[in-house]
Amino acid sequence: MPDLIKNNLIFLIVFIGLFLGGTHMTTAQVKKVSVPTVQKAKAPGLKRGRQVQKQTGTKPVNEIAEAAIKDKADALAARYLANGRGGVGLVIGVIDGYRRMILSYGETKKGNGEKPKTNTIFQIGSVTKVFTATLLAIYAEKNVVNYNDPLQKYVPTGITVPSKGGRKIGLLDLATHYSGLPRTVTTSGPTSINQAYNILENTSLLSKPGDTWAYSNLGFGFLALAVADAASAPGWVSLVEKDIAKPLNLVDTTVDLNAQTQRSAQGYNKAGNATPSTMPGWPGLGGAGQLNSTPDDMLKFLSFNMGLTQTPLNSVLPDLHKSWRPVTGQTGRSQGLGWNILETKTRTVWKNGTTPGFHSYIGFCKAKKSGVFVLSNSLQLNSTNLGQELLGFLTGDPQH
Prior knowledge:
Layout: H1 3-21, H2 66-81, E1 89-96, E2 99-106, E3 122-123, H3 128-141, H4 171-175, H5 193-201, H6 217-230, H7 236-248, E4 292-293, H8 295-305, H9 317-321, E5 325-326, E6 333-335, E7 340-343, E8 347-355, E9 358-365, E10 370-376, H10 383-395
Antiparallel strand pairs: 1-2, 1-10, 3-4, 5-6, 6-7, 7-8, 8-9, 9-10
Helix pairs in contact: 2-10, 3-6, 3-7
């Protein structure tokens, strides 16, 4: 076949494919496609840090240009770091189909001029809860625990778990905020495991277990202790490291920092003052919010939860992201195992976290193959609102 006719025929096939199927093309349709180079976009006055975006995978459903995603992230970072909102340092992670990005802004400590890196340590607060819930799902799959087991089964001899209306607290109640336990209790300084159980015995339930959704840090603290007891482990942190961090290659997701301390961001409270690295309730109730992590690790964890990475843990994802129970009084919202679920035009699975000096957010929409995480070392910056805005941009569905 003459080259001119052959080339024209190839062009015609490609054109018809684009017309019928949009811009999505597979390698079976076209072997070589020239893609224009996208220039890195920069918002005025902002310096973006290292970007990670080369990884194979499924093409994005939305087909939003890469430059447009970066421009949106830059604009959000500029708005949230300024305009009276405050903030010190910020990292935004994005998954959009096959694209991976980690964008950093601001400083790890006021005045040091150092942008957060992909291995900078952040406290992730209540995002820890989805790690604790993942442990529950792992050990339920192994038949070491049952979701309906009473918490009483896994507490030390002599400890009586409170009940109400003849109903005992079950592990599923703890994992879905249906335990009836209060959100938190006032403690001063560190809390040991023995002190935590003393708190449990002397706490009155606000509602009958299984009846009403009420967010509880206490619940997840005791869930972590229960799974550790069932697994005969020295503590829940050792299970996170062995059963989650190792198979997912999360090299910096832990509680006890050694050499990693040198890479830790400094946290700041709403008044802009530096905060200590500990908080009341730890370590006894640390399963509710004590983990540290990095942008590198959070990107891996996000990809795993979106089902984009094949790991030995993928079989527990349906249980983690299932809508187990409704969030009382909130239309379109339900509770997974640790995860919040929002159903509007799309289904979004998300969680956020706060410590005295850090704010975090992670959320994704599997149907759109889009996910976002945000890490901030200042309570003056609301990572949840920023993350929801960016995810809404990616999915075309506002997250509020």
